[in-house]
Amino acid sequence: MLRLLGFFVLAVLLAGLLGHVPVIGPLFRHGGLLGVFVAAGLLSFALGRLGERLVTARKLKAEVQALGAVDSPHNRGKLGALLLARGRARAARAHLAAAVAGEPDSAEWRYRLGLAELGAGDPAAALAAFEACVAREEEHAYGQALLRCAECLQRLGRAQEALAALARHERNHGEMPEALYRRGRALAALGRRSEARAALARVLELSARATRYQRAEARGWAFRARLARLF
């Protein structure tokens, strides 16, 4: 009962604060119970999201502690991959670097290290990791390692080399929206405008024919291609 009362008090206070916000303020100042109910809905949503984040943080802490209990290259790699999946690329780098040092023949750890370096904003270090991964297993992650090589090369201003990496990817996988988008950007950087426009147009064609499970990702690349065609 006290919890419910506390929630209601917070909703009333929130409605009062929102009453000072431009445009939506009148709803909360003059809406009476409707304004309070809307504020209660917003508060419930916010508290729900906060609760989810707290639960996720607790789970992550427990998993990190469990993996850190045994200091081995494999566990360091799993810990780095876990942190990377949770969006903590900078924290993941040291663990993945330790995994690479301890298991140098693993293409997976090199690939994950590349993703961490890329996520941390270091495309040069990422490229070194991806190239080492590709040297061991060209088709690692179903060709994603080659695509990430191309992405790093583009970020480093090495468009011609990016095109070579994309050509290798296309030989193995055929045309794909992301690869075509990156090809278009690389060609544009080299001043080959008509070829760039053709590649970006092809992104839209492929995206329109994407299968159901690929549709969401394809739409994202189609949106980027449309933006790129404007410049």
Could you please describe the fold and organization of this structure?
This protein has helices spanning 2-18, 25-30, 33-68, 73-85, 89-102, 107-119, 123-136, 144-155, 159-173, 177-189, 193-208, 215-229. By secondary structure, the chain is mainly α. Among the domains are: 74-157, Serine Threonine Protein Phosphatase 5, Tetratricopeptide repeat, CATH 1.25.40.10; 175-231, no CATH class. Helix 8 (144-155) packs antiparallel against helix 9 and helix 11 packs antiparallel against helix 12. The chain is flat, with a radius of gyration of 24 Å. The termini are far apart.
What is the SS-derived class? mainly alpha
The largest β sheet comes out as:
none
Compute the number of helices. Answer: 12
Q: Which fold name is given in CATH as the topology of the domain at 74-157?
A: Serine Threonine Protein Phosphatase 5, Tetratricopeptide repeat
| Anisotropy-based shape | flat
Quick take:
By secondary structure, the protein is an all-alpha fold.
Topology summary:
Layout: H1 2-18, H2 25-30, H3 33-68, H4 73-85, H5 89-102, H6 107-119, H7 123-136, H8 144-155, H9 159-173, H10 177-189, H11 193-208, H12 215-229
Helix pairs in contact: 1-3, 3-4, 4-5, 4-6, 5-6, 6-7, 7-8, 8-9, 8-10, 9-10, 10-11, 10-12, 11-12
Task: Summarize this structure as a short list of keywords or feature phrases.
single chain; 231 residues; mainly alpha; Serine Threonine Protein Phosphatase 5, Tetratricopeptide repeat; 12 helices; 80% helix; flat
